Amino acid sequence: MYMIVNIMMNSFTSRSMMEGQEIEIIWTIIPAITLIFIALPSLHLLYLTDEIFNAQTSIKIIGHQWYWSYEYSDFNKEFDSFLIPETDLDINSFRLLETDNNLMIPFNTMIKFLITSADVIHSWTIPSLG
User: Fold this and answer.
1) 74 touches 111 (CB < 8 A)
2) Contact yes or no for 57/109 (Cβ under 8 A)
3) Based on the domain organization, do 33 and 78 belong to the same domain?
4) Structural domain span for residue 34
5) Are 39 and 86 found together in one domain?
6) Where is each Cytochrome oxidase subunit II copper A binding domain found (predicted)?
7) What pLDDT shows up at residue 39?
8) Does residue 44 share a domain with residue 25?
């Protein structure tokens, strides 16, 4: 409150700058238009990447605190996949990537992955895809 009163009563304050509605409109409208021009193509691409054309099979992946659960909906099969402890790894194995039950996916088919979590946020990936 002190700062507002001090600025209003100060003789060095330009009275014309106190009511700069034109400049305020300009610096509000121009960034808004810029954001709209960025958002529209991004939303279009977002919806295009979410489309699934003729998925031949679907796999549901559920992340748990220390393991993954997989469900093949077309084959009514499900299993859990746990990390292999470091002491049990072979010399050429990948640490934090080797599991006791690996997910097998069909080659050269469209697959719909439904990835969710049972407790906290998880990141599921296929290492060979980058």
Assistant:
1) no
2) yes
3) no
4) 2-50
5) no
6) 54-130
7) 95
8) yes
Give per-residue pLDDT as tens, 94-117.
887 788 888 888 888 888 888 999
Tokens standing for residue 51: 């489309």
Residue among 113, 102, 107 nearest 72 (CA): 113
Decide: 80 and 63 in contact? Cβ < 8 Å. no
- Looking at the chain, the whole-number percentage of residues with pLDDT higher than 70 is 90
Q: Which residue has the tokens 């992946």?
A: 61
Beta bridge partners of 57: 111
Place of tokens 């097998």: 104
Nearest to 118 by CA among 75, 67, 58, 82: 67
Say yes or no to pLDDT of 55 above 90: no
Cα of first residue to Cα of last residue in the chain, in angstroms, is: 56
Nearest to 68, CA basis, from 57, 82, 54, 55: 82
Query: Residue 115 maps to which CATH number?
Result: 2.60.40.420
User: How would residue 69 be classed by pLDDT, with cut points 50, 70 and 90?
Assistant: very high
Amino acid at residue number 56: Q
Under a CB-based contact definition with an 8 Å cutoff, are residues 86 and 95 in contact? Answer: yes
Q: How many domains does the chain have?
A: 2
